[in-house]
Amino acid sequence: MSKQKQKAHPTVVNGALLKVQDLVKFFPIKGGLLQTTVANVKAVDGVSFEIKKGETLGLIGESGSGKSTVARTILRLIPPTSGEAWLEGRSIFKAKKKELHEIRREVQIIFQDPYGSLNPRMSVGEIVGEGLLVHGIGSAHERDKIVSELLEVVGLRGQYRGRFPHEFSGGQRQRIGIARALALRPKLIIADEPVSALDVSIQSQILNLLEDLQNEFDLTYLFVAHNMAVVEQVSDRIAVMYLGKIVELAPAEQLLRGPRHPYTKALISVIPIPDPTLRRDQTVLSGEMPSPTNPPSGCHFRTRCPIATDYCAEVEPALREVSKGQFAACHYA
Amino acid sequence: MSDLLRIEDLHTQFHVHGGTVKAVDGVNLTIPARATVGLVGESGSGKSITALSIMRLLEKNGRITQGHVWFHDRDLIGLPDEEMQDIRGNDISMIFQEPMTALNPVFTVGDQIAEAVRLHQKVDHQAGLNRAIEMLRLVGISDPKRRAGQYPHELSGGMRQRVMIAMALSTSPELLIADEPTTALDVTIQAQILKLMRNLKGEFGSAILLITHDLGVVAEMCDSVAVMYAGRIVEQATTEELFASPKHPYTQGLLASIPRLGKKQERLHVITGSVPNPLAVPPGCAFRPRCPIKAPRSDRDIPPLTANGSAEHLVACWQYE
């Protein structure tokens, strides 16, 4: 059986703030008497992309696609198995203590769960100001002032500094999480499902806020989510993940109007649209995403793909440019 | 179409630390036979409590304080527990967002469905098990005989939801209450389940009360839809009518604030503020603090749900008085 590997990195563009190359993350499964590695969960299996300064890259996928693992690996919250990531040319994965300290100041994260991600024993001021303290920025008085300003920036009152997370609604807590992420004036913010725990009427408030902050503070976003309409709203380009790999990457509008990968096509066709007069041909995929412990040979999507052939089981399709700026990993795209 | 279920002025309250929460505060809703009715609202709007009130499955601190739930011509509210037990699962079934909470982890899925059938249709276990396997096949589970012998934890989320649907429909209920049945599922799996529900509806002829926060799911599934806010229904209409010409400022805001696929907006519409604290709902219209209209009277009196334009389009807003 011949096996082709993705070689080129066609998604590379100049002036990248973040560059990720051949990122692999396997989680070993230990078993047996000696607790040896009996198998690997191949969460991320060779992912490459770049994000330009000031750009928002949406990373979309269903559960188990590996999108959150990509985010966490870039932050070095978990170590990669292999691959590289650079922030403005500096290696993130090879960075030693001092460099890492600096990189962590420049890359911040906003979490999905506005309840679990804020320490209930800390005041809002302590939560938002913690990064400033850790990085030794300003005097206590100056830090208080910065925190108050940050709270105002995200649409809360500066006086809320002394309050505790439980006194706030879900939307307000997410604003606190955003203020915390902004405190160190980062260059890159990784937003991991930042609105999926919020009600519809609160979602739009937070999405608008993220857009305002991007303009005001010259931010770059990696926006990880499972909701295509939300991702489209905020993203310049969108990368679609399936079972540890990027299967398609394109400018947002191009991806929505003319998806080329069969998975992207099916995904878009079944997203419920709030318009009862709309009649669409849906491609309802059968089956479920296979286990990342034992992904299919060749193309990972072939077991659910409506157009798969024997060739797909043998040769893994590379992510190649199928039209200008649009990349798809399918032999038939 | 004749009415299958008619909710009249339903009030459900919860005693919590710090006071009484009026979770359902005067809901009126009619479900015609064989219809799919959507009940939409954000968290805390009272949509799930409305469903649990119909089923009389409230937590201990919850109480129905007023109102009627007419099923055919029997009021479920006053029914003795035994008779209610008989209706539950037999005439009215319910499926939940997280099937794991509703399935018993120590019994195989086949035995659980068989038990439901046996209890309600007075057949022996073998007949129940046969019915279970037939139902599993019907909801699209391959190799149903083998699956029937498996425990819930051996199945994926989508598969468990299929099992829940199989169990709920095994007694051919007249009404199926589905509380966020696809919210915990991935989009491609959601599509499978929604397709399954549409197909089964044709086959079984059950009416469906579909509780969801997803207006896309409503548009795809429902004949009519009711929008809830702070314990009350603020608007109700046929699905096409509601999406084409929403009349309540909350519905209008909600529809305007969702990102639309393939139609990126310069800026999303925003409903300011957030839902009121359930222990301190403002007097008059509960939406007033967030409302761009703030009609006269809305600061004092709760607007009634009245026909507006057509008998089928109901709105609770003083601006139309």
What's the N-to-C terminus distance of chain A?
Answer: 23 Å
Number of β-strand runs of chain B? 12
CATH-scheme architecture of chain B:
3-Layer(aba) Sandwich
Counting copies of identical and different chains, the oligomeric state is: heterodimer
Form type of chain A: globular
- Widest sheet, order of strands of chain A: 6-7-8-3-9-10-12-11
Strand numbers in spatial order across the main sheet of chain B: 6-7-8-3-9-10-12-11
Quick one: CATH superfamily of the domain at 16-88 and 187-328 in chain A? P-loop containing nucleotide triphosphate hydrolases
Strand content of chain A: 15-25%
- Name the CATH superfamily assignment of chain B: P-loop containing nucleotide triphosphate hydrolases
CATH C-level class of chain B: Alpha Beta
State the end-to-end CA separation of chain B: 30 Å
Helix content of chain A: 25-40%
For the biggest sheet of chain B, the summary is:
8 strands, mixed
Q: How many strand segments of chain A?
A: 12
Give a short overview.
The complex is a heterodimer of chains A (333) and B (321). Chain A has ten helices and twelve strands.
Characteristic terms for this protein:
heterodimer; A: 333 residues; alpha/beta; Rossmann fold; eight-stranded mixed sheet; four-stranded antiparallel sheet; 12 strands; 30% helix; globular; disordered N terminus; B: 321 residues; 11 helices; 33% helix
Topology of this protein?
The complex is a heterodimer of chains A (333) and B (321).
Chain A: E1 16-31, E2 36-52, E3 56-60, H1 67-74, E4 82-87, E5 90-91, H2 97-106, E6 107-110, H3 124-134, H4 140-153, H5 170-182, E7 188-192, H6 200-217, E8 220-225, H7 228-234, E9 237-242, E10 245-251, H8 252-257, H9 262-270, H10 310-314, E11 320-323, E12 326-328
Parallel strand pairs in A: 3-8, 3-9, 6-7, 7-8
Antiparallel strand pairs in A: 1-2, 1-4, 4-5, 9-10, 10-12, 11-12
Chain B: E1 3-16, E2 19-32, E3 36-40, H1 47-55, E4 62-71, E5 74-75, H2 81-87, E6 92-95, H3 99-102, H4 109-121, H5 125-138, H6 144-148, H7 157-169, E7 175-179, H8 187-204, E8 207-212, H9 215-221, E9 224-229, E10 232-238, H10 239-244, H11 249-257, E11 306-308, E12 310-315
Parallel strand pairs in B: 3-8, 3-9, 6-7, 7-8
Antiparallel strand pairs in B: 1-2, 1-4, 4-5, 9-10, 10-12, 11-12
Helix pairs in contact in B: 4-5, 4-7, 5-7, 7-8
